[in-house]
Each structure stands twice: as C-alpha cells, then as structure tokens.
C-alpha cells in the first residue's frame, strides 16, 4: 500500500520574469528602472522542496546567480517544462550540483524537450567518457505519464504555449503552470483541488503565447485554489500598482519568494 505523503511543500521562486528579463536591455521604463526589488525579475524558474528533496524546474540563463542569491546549495533532480532558451540555457551550471552530490542527476522532460537538449547539450546527457573533465551529467527521464521523485508523484499538466504544447506540473497540493497561453479543460480537471496554483500572468495586454492577467484570473476561478501566484511577468507589470488590483487570494510572485503549502 502506498503511503500518502502530506508533509509540507515549499516553492522557492528563483525567477519570476519573462524571457527578456527585467530590467530589459535598452529599456528605461518605470518598471525597468524601479527601485522596488520585486520588479527585478530574472528568467522563470522555481525549486520545489519536500522531505529533504529539492527539485529544480527549468535551468535559466541566470541559474548560477539565482542559486547563489537564494543559497540553493543542492539540487536532487531537475524537471523541464519545455525547451525554449529562457528555460534551458543555464543547464551547464548543473555541473556544480553533480560535484556537490557526487552523482548524476535525473532530469525529467518530454520527448520534444529531450530532442532539443540533445542538440544543445548532448554532452550533458551522455555518460562521461573522461572523468577528469568538469561537465554536467544528467540522466534523461522521458515523461510519459505520472512520475515519482523521492516518493512523491508528479502529474504532468499539458498547456498551450502559442502553437506548442508544453508541461506544467502538479505536486500534491501545489501546481506550477508557467508559459501558458491557454489551459485545456482536461488540464483544468487535473488542477482541481490544489491549494496553491502558480500560473503565467504576463501582462494586461493580449499576447499570442502567454495568458494575460485577466485570462489567468479566469483560469484561477475555474480551478478554485486556496491561493494563487502569478509569474512570468513582463515589464508592463509594476508590482506595487498591479498587486492591489488583484483578488485577495491572488498575489504576484517575485524573485526570492518562498511559499509553503
């Protein structure tokens, strides 16, 4: 008989920004020049922790800086949502976690992400032939259905990202759904009952590959979580001005935020 694990889950936001990061290169708007640290957004990634296990979702270009800033000294596994550059290009920094753990790391991904990573980072997905070379060593695990990391089941949540299909994930009472332009009804059903829903809320203006804040609120209303956090936000979202306009159970994520569920 499988034991139900009800121990707390922590989600740490390493990054909460869109693909260009904030401040953006060459932009001097009110958000990009804001003194509010919540408006400084690196590329989107989180660490989900439970039972002394830390799982990294996506490897952003700022991965090293994110981990140093948040004292993430160990990662036990990696899960990928999709293979866009802002979600994978920090993969090489995972070699430090290999060195700290003294072992390879399982990396969970769908088949299309595996194909992309095999082209960009093939050296990291193969068994090293030269043990003296300092390189990452990830063991690819292809997501076909529910999968288990350290005794807790992960449910893949199919999401539309423009014309592409990518994955969000539900882990017990927590769900993480970034980079979504739509959430299919079948995925809404998979999300019902979560306590904390993290979901894409790029900006107020319509976008072809991301939910607007209002569209995210519509998804939240369907799922009915106890709490929700918006992430993957653009420089059109000033934290101090937008958050007060949201329902009380919906807040904006920010880099360095830690939440328990």
Uncertain residue ranges: none
- Beta strands, count: 14
What is the CATH domain class? Alpha Beta
In N-to-C order, the SSE pattern is EEEHEHHEHHEEEEEHEHEHEE
Average pLDDT figure: 95
* General form: globular
Q: Strands across the major sheet, in which order?
A: 6-5-4-3-2-1-14
Question: What's the short version?
Answer:
This protein is α/β, with parallel strands linked by helices and 261 residues long.
Structure, explained:
With 261 residues, this protein is of the alpha/beta class. Helix content is 21%, strand content 27%. The model has no long low-confidence stretch (mean pLDDT 95). It has helices at 63-69, 85-88, 95-101, 111-120, 122-125, 185-191, 213-223, 239-242, and strands spanning 10-15, 45-50, 53-57, 77-79, 105-109, 138-142, 147-149, 152-161, 164-171, 174-177, 196-200, 227-231, 250-252, 258-260. It has one domain: Metallo-beta-lactamase, Chain A. The chain is globular, with a radius of gyration of 18 Å. The two termini are 25 Å apart.
